[in-house]
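Let us work through a complete example step by step.
Step 1: write down the sequence.
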Amino acid sequence: MRAMTAMTKTARTWIGAVAMAAGVAFIGVSAAGQAGTTKVTLKDKDGATVGTATLQAAPGGGVQINLAITKLPPGEHGIHIHQVAKCEGPDFMTAGPHFNPGAKKHGTQNPEGPHAGDMNNFTVDADGKATRTVNDPRVSLGTDANSVFTGGGTALVVHAAADDMKTDPSGNSGARIACGVITK
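Step 2: predict the structure and record it as C-alpha coordinates.
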Protein backbone atom coordinates (compact mmCIF):
# COMPACT_ATOMS: atom_id res chain seq x y z
CA MET A 1 0.00 0.00 0.00
CA ARG A 2 2.83 2.44 0.90
CA ALA A 3 4.58 1.70 -2.40
CA MET A 4 1.35 2.44 -4.26
CA THR A 5 0.82 5.71 -2.35
CA ALA A 6 4.42 6.77 -3.02
CA MET A 7 4.03 5.89 -6.69
CA THR A 8 0.74 7.82 -6.94
CA LYS A 9 2.32 10.86 -5.28
CA THR A 10 5.32 10.66 -7.63
CA ALA A 11 3.00 10.38 -10.64
CA ARG A 12 0.98 13.44 -9.51
CA THR A 13 4.17 15.44 -9.02
CA TRP A 14 5.47 14.43 -12.45
CA ILE A 15 2.14 15.24 -14.16
CA GLY A 16 2.04 18.61 -12.39
CA ALA A 17 5.61 19.41 -13.50
CA VAL A 18 4.84 18.47 -17.11
CA ALA A 19 1.63 20.53 -17.07
CA MET A 20 3.42 23.60 -15.68
CA ALA A 21 6.25 23.27 -18.19
CA ALA A 22 3.67 23.14 -20.98
CA GLY A 23 1.86 26.19 -19.58
CA VAL A 24 -1.29 24.22 -18.79
CA ALA A 25 -3.25 25.17 -15.69
CA PHE A 26 -5.33 22.63 -13.84
CA ILE A 27 -9.05 23.31 -14.00
CA GLY A 28 -10.46 24.89 -10.85
CA VAL A 29 -7.44 26.39 -9.08
CA SER A 30 -4.41 28.09 -10.59
CA ALA A 31 -0.89 28.04 -9.22
CA ALA A 32 -1.64 31.27 -7.33
CA GLY A 33 -4.49 29.61 -5.42
CA GLN A 34 -7.17 31.46 -7.39
CA ALA A 35 -10.39 29.70 -8.23
CA GLY A 36 -13.50 30.36 -10.28
CA THR A 37 -14.96 33.64 -11.43
CA THR A 38 -16.70 36.52 -9.70
CA LYS A 39 -19.41 38.60 -11.36
CA VAL A 40 -19.83 42.26 -10.42
CA THR A 41 -22.85 44.41 -11.28
CA LEU A 42 -21.91 48.00 -12.10
CA LYS A 43 -24.45 50.67 -11.18
CA ASP A 44 -24.63 54.41 -11.79
CA LYS A 45 -25.32 57.18 -9.25
CA ASP A 46 -29.06 56.51 -9.44
CA GLY A 47 -28.71 52.77 -8.84
CA ALA A 48 -29.41 51.76 -12.45
CA THR A 49 -27.39 48.85 -13.81
CA VAL A 50 -24.93 50.08 -16.47
CA GLY A 51 -23.00 46.86 -17.03
CA THR A 52 -21.22 43.90 -15.53
CA ALA A 53 -17.66 42.81 -14.94
CA THR A 54 -16.56 39.20 -14.69
CA LEU A 55 -13.32 38.65 -12.80
CA GLN A 56 -11.20 35.55 -13.33
CA ALA A 57 -7.60 34.51 -12.91
CA ALA A 58 -5.54 35.96 -15.77
CA PRO A 59 -3.16 33.78 -17.74
CA GLY A 60 0.28 34.48 -16.29
CA GLY A 61 -1.06 35.87 -13.00
CA GLY A 62 -3.26 38.61 -11.69
CA VAL A 63 -6.91 39.13 -12.53
CA GLN A 64 -8.61 39.53 -15.89
CA ILE A 65 -11.73 41.72 -15.85
CA ASN A 66 -14.18 41.20 -18.70
CA LEU A 67 -16.39 44.27 -19.01
CA ALA A 68 -19.84 44.25 -20.60
CA ILE A 69 -20.92 47.90 -20.42
CA THR A 70 -24.45 48.73 -21.55
CA LYS A 71 -24.89 52.40 -20.68
CA LEU A 72 -22.03 54.79 -19.89
CA PRO A 73 -20.89 58.05 -21.49
CA PRO A 74 -18.82 57.47 -24.65
CA GLY A 75 -15.07 57.97 -24.47
CA GLU A 76 -12.06 56.85 -22.48
CA HIS A 77 -12.53 56.05 -18.79
CA GLY A 78 -10.29 55.23 -15.87
CA ILE A 79 -11.12 52.06 -13.97
CA HIS A 80 -9.72 51.06 -10.58
CA ILE A 81 -10.20 48.60 -7.79
CA HIS A 82 -11.04 50.54 -4.62
CA GLN A 83 -10.39 49.58 -1.00
CA VAL A 84 -13.93 49.18 0.41
CA ALA A 85 -16.77 46.89 -0.69
CA LYS A 86 -19.38 49.69 -0.66
CA CYS A 87 -20.98 51.49 -3.58
CA GLU A 88 -23.34 54.11 -2.23
CA GLY A 89 -24.34 56.80 -4.72
CA PRO A 90 -24.36 59.40 -5.86
CA ASP A 91 -20.57 59.81 -5.64
CA PHE A 92 -19.41 56.32 -4.53
CA MET A 93 -16.98 57.82 -2.02
CA THR A 94 -17.91 54.91 0.27
CA ALA A 95 -15.66 52.74 -1.93
CA GLY A 96 -12.70 54.52 -0.34
CA PRO A 97 -9.32 55.08 -1.99
CA HIS A 98 -7.67 52.82 -4.53
CA PHE A 99 -6.77 49.33 -3.32
CA ASN A 100 -3.16 49.83 -2.23
CA PRO A 101 -1.82 47.18 0.18
CA GLY A 102 1.76 48.00 -0.88
CA ALA A 103 1.47 51.70 0.08
CA LYS A 104 2.56 52.87 -3.41
CA LYS A 105 1.80 56.09 -5.32
CA HIS A 106 -0.81 56.15 -8.08
CA GLY A 107 -0.14 55.22 -11.67
CA THR A 108 1.59 52.65 -13.83
CA GLN A 109 3.89 55.44 -15.09
CA ASN A 110 4.70 56.74 -11.61
CA PRO A 111 8.20 55.64 -10.46
CA GLU A 112 6.79 55.24 -6.92
CA GLY A 113 3.71 53.30 -8.07
CA PRO A 114 1.43 51.78 -8.93
CA HIS A 115 -1.41 51.01 -6.54
CA ALA A 116 -2.48 47.36 -6.72
CA GLY A 117 -5.87 48.58 -8.01
CA ASP A 118 -4.52 50.70 -10.89
CA MET A 119 -5.36 49.50 -14.41
CA ASN A 120 -5.30 50.73 -17.99
CA ASN A 121 -8.16 52.86 -19.30
CA PHE A 122 -10.91 51.45 -21.47
CA THR A 123 -13.11 53.07 -24.13
CA VAL A 124 -16.90 53.17 -24.30
CA ASP A 125 -18.30 53.31 -27.84
CA ALA A 126 -20.56 56.11 -29.16
CA ASP A 127 -23.65 54.03 -28.32
CA GLY A 128 -22.67 53.85 -24.62
CA LYS A 129 -21.61 50.22 -24.85
CA ALA A 130 -18.29 48.46 -24.46
CA THR A 131 -17.14 44.86 -24.41
CA ARG A 132 -13.56 45.12 -23.22
CA THR A 133 -11.01 43.24 -21.14
CA VAL A 134 -8.67 44.92 -18.68
CA ASN A 135 -6.04 43.14 -16.62
CA ASP A 136 -4.63 43.84 -13.20
CA PRO A 137 -1.43 41.85 -12.63
CA ARG A 138 -1.08 43.15 -9.05
CA VAL A 139 -4.24 41.63 -7.53
CA SER A 140 -5.56 38.10 -7.04
CA LEU A 141 -8.72 36.14 -6.35
CA GLY A 142 -6.88 34.20 -3.64
CA THR A 143 -6.35 34.73 0.07
CA ASP A 144 -3.15 36.79 -0.01
CA ALA A 145 -2.78 40.48 0.93
CA ASN A 146 -3.43 41.53 -2.69
CA SER A 147 -6.69 39.58 -2.97
CA VAL A 148 -9.72 41.58 -4.10
CA PHE A 149 -11.56 39.73 -1.31
CA THR A 150 -9.29 41.09 1.47
CA GLY A 151 -11.14 42.67 4.38
CA GLY A 152 -14.56 41.57 3.13
CA GLY A 153 -14.04 42.67 -0.46
CA THR A 154 -13.30 45.68 -2.63
CA ALA A 155 -15.12 47.74 -5.27
CA LEU A 156 -14.67 48.21 -9.00
CA VAL A 157 -15.07 51.90 -9.89
CA VAL A 158 -15.37 53.53 -13.33
CA HIS A 159 -14.37 57.20 -13.54
CA ALA A 160 -15.72 59.96 -15.80
CA ALA A 161 -12.39 60.67 -17.52
CA ALA A 162 -9.27 58.84 -18.60
CA ASP A 163 -6.57 58.13 -16.02
CA ASP A 164 -3.28 59.92 -16.83
CA MET A 165 -1.42 56.96 -15.25
CA LYS A 166 0.84 59.10 -13.05
CA THR A 167 -0.89 61.77 -10.94
CA ASP A 168 -1.40 60.74 -7.31
CA PRO A 169 -3.90 59.80 -5.90
CA SER A 170 -6.24 58.96 -8.82
CA GLY A 171 -4.71 59.99 -12.14
CA ASN A 172 -6.98 63.01 -12.66
CA SER A 173 -9.67 60.55 -13.75
CA GLY A 174 -12.56 62.65 -12.51
CA ALA A 175 -15.80 61.72 -10.79
CA ARG A 176 -16.76 58.17 -9.93
CA ILE A 177 -19.64 57.38 -12.33
CA ALA A 178 -20.20 53.63 -11.84
CA CYS A 179 -19.41 51.20 -9.06
CA GLY A 180 -19.78 47.50 -8.28
CA VAL A 181 -18.96 45.54 -5.13
CA ILE A 182 -16.43 42.71 -5.43
CA THR A 183 -17.12 39.95 -2.90
CA LYS A 184 -17.03 36.17 -2.86
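Step 3: interpret the result. Residues 164 and 171 are 5 Å apart (CA to CA).
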